[in-house]
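Much of our argument rests on the idea that a fold can be written as discrete symbols. In the encoding step, the backbone of a single protein was reduced to a row of integers, each denoting a local shape. We regard such an encoding as a compact summary of how the chain folds. The record that follows shows the chain in one-letter code together with its fold in token form:
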Amino acid sequence: MALRARGAAIAPGMRLAAQRSSRDTDVDLVHAEVQDECVRVAYDANEPIAAELVDAKGEVLARALEPAGSGILPAAGPVCVRRGDAISAIAIRATDASPGTAVLWAAWAAP
């Protein structure tokens, strides 16, 4: 099932804030330009990855406990940043992963 279609179950009452497809290690998801932002993020990858959410300083906000082909971050509710900050997703690939590992990310933010 597409990530966008799972939004109501993953992040009830939240709006889709970003959807990105990437083969890069990190991808910008949300910039809290006007107000504080709280998000939940889901991902689907074509190979297992370890996933993290980080703020603009690189501090880890949420981390998947085990490498997986899909997951939700954070596992138990949204993570928030202050106005002026940002949230990026990091895909940590296994050393033997193919260079073509693709990840689809979706972020839902509080209205």
